[in-house]
């Protein structure tokens, strides 16, 4: 605007005849100058925006590259059923898919704190975990543990026992423990010559891995019992459960017996009252995992629970055993867990603070850390 005023002051006003033409010419010139100014400012603004966007993109790319170098890749959150032959992404950061607020006993692990940092799983006696679910559960319950172990470079196999998970057999028709654990014993029996595995049993899965240890002691490197039935020879799982029964026992309240052969015959299976599931099994677990369990759990066959195990020192006794206690467990209380430990002491006992009966849901990171630690014990 200042330039236009200076131009008008330097020249006298023209005659009346030419004034209209001059005003028109000046207006046009003014319009062109303003147009050029606005265009120039817009170009400068666009250039600045482009430069800012380019810098921002460069910064994000650099951060992404640094995250990849530090091993901070995304966690696989799939809840689909996953079975053997899981290839691992060794540099990925395992993250719990839990939606709960984290406690100090199960913090989010930073890249420099990862338990799998520096681990050479190929140098271990075995890097193959076989996960065995408890009564009513299925292989699906291990989805967080499977992902975390695979990310750390381990091979993981999760077994659906007969009539459990996606196994189509009718639970009411299971007559013995051998029939119930057949998918597990078949799997262990078919392992290549010289290959060993780490068996992990939860809940009633403890009795199941004990049965497999007695059959194939030389194919089992270690056995891990997680809030599990760890029996002595001549005991049944029912013997253990009976030690804690009382009128106020939550497990007793939750049990619903099924009589497929009629009420005048023994129960064929038992289910759990869905309204008591959270308090009994998942009192520290995320709501979404409770929802998964409520639509996925199946009845537990009754005959295997009644069956007494025959365990020998020359077979079962030569396998290294480890126990993981769950301190907030309402199904197999810490008192009952310690009674089993005292009756048949394992090599080492670990404790999971803040864990309910299902630590694969409530404390997935802490459970993963313990499993890896056990795999490294020489």
UniProtKB/TrEMBL annotation:
<dbReference type="GO" id="GO:0080032">
    <property type="term" value="F:methyl jasmonate esterase activity"/>
</dbReference>
<feature type="compositionally biased region" description="Polar residues">
    <location>
        <begin position="79"/>
        <end position="90"/>
    </location>
</feature>
<dbReference type="GO" id="GO:0009696">
    <property type="term" value="P:salicylic acid metabolic process"/>
</dbReference>
<feature type="compositionally biased region" description="Low complexity">
    <location>
        <begin position="24"/>
        <end position="34"/>
    </location>
</feature>
<dbReference type="InterPro" id="IPR029058">
    <property type="entry name" value="AB_hydrolase_fold"/>
</dbReference>
<dbReference type="GO" id="GO:0080031">
    <property type="term" value="F:methyl salicylate esterase activity"/>
</dbReference>
<feature type="region of interest" description="Disordered">
    <location>
        <begin position="9"/>
        <end position="46"/>
    </location>
</feature>
<feature type="domain" description="AB hydrolase-1">
    <location>
        <begin position="129"/>
        <end position="367"/>
    </location>
</feature>
<feature type="region of interest" description="Disordered">
    <location>
        <begin position="79"/>
        <end position="107"/>
    </location>
</feature>
<protein>
    <recommendedName>
        <fullName>AB hydrolase-1 domain-containing protein</fullName>
    </recommendedName>
</protein>
<dbReference type="GO" id="GO:0009694">
    <property type="term" value="P:jasmonic acid metabolic process"/>
</dbReference>
<dbReference type="InterPro" id="IPR000073">
    <property type="entry name" value="AB_hydrolase_1"/>
</dbReference>
<dbReference type="Pfam" id="PF12697">
    <property type="entry name" value="Abhydrolase_6"/>
</dbReference>
<dbReference type="InterPro" id="IPR045889">
    <property type="entry name" value="MES/HNL"/>
</dbReference>
<keyword id="KW-0378">Hydrolase</keyword>
<dbReference type="GO" id="GO:0080030">
    <property type="term" value="F:methyl indole-3-acetate esterase activity"/>
</dbReference>
């Amino acid at each position: 605007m200042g330039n236009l005023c200076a131009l008008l002051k330097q020249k006298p006003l023209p005659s009346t005849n030419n004034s209209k033409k001059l005003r028109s010419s000046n207006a046009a010139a003014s319009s062109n100058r303003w147009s050029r100014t606005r265009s120039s400012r817009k170009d400068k603004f666009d250039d600045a925006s482009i430069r800012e966007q380019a810098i921002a993109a460069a910064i994000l790319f650099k951060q992404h590259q640094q995250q990849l170098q530090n091993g901070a890749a995304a966690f696989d959150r799939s809840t689909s059923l996953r079975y053997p032959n899981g290839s691992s992404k060794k540099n990925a950061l395992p993250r719990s898919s839990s939606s709960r607020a984290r406690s100090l006993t199960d913090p989010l692990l930073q890249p420099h704190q990862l338990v799998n940092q520096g681990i050479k799983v190929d140098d271990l006696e075995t890097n193959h975990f076989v996960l065995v679910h408890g009564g009513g559960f299925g292989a699906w319950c291990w989805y967080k543990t499977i992902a975390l172990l695979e990310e750390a470079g381990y091979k993981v196999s999760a077994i659906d026992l007969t009539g459990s998970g996606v196994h189509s057999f009718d639970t009411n028709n299971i007559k013995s423990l051998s029939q119930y654990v057949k998918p597990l014993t078949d799997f262990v029996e078919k392992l290549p010559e010289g290959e060993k595995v780490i068996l992990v049993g939860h809940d009633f899965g403890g009795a199941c891995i004990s049965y497999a240890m007695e059959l194939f002691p030389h194919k089992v490197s270690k056995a891990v019992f997680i809030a599990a039935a760890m029996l002595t020879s001549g005991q049944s799982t029912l013997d253990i459960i009976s030690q804690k029964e009382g009128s106020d026992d939550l497990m007793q309240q939750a049990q619903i017996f099924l009589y497929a052969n009629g009420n005048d015959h023994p129960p064929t299976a038992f289910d759990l009252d869905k309204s008591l599931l959270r308090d009994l099994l998942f009192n520290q677990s995320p709501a979404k995992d409770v929802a998964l369990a409520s639509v996925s759990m199946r009845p537990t066959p009754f005959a295997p629970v009644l069956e007494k195990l025959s365990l020998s020192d020359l077979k079962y006794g030569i396998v290294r055993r480890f126990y993981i206690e769950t301190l907030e467990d309402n199904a197999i209380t810490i008192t009952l867990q310690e009674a089993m430990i005292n009756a048949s002491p394992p090599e080492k006992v670990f404790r999971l603070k803040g864990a309910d009966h299902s630590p694969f849901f409530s404390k997935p990171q802490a459970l993963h850390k313990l499993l890896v630690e056990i795999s490294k014990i020489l």
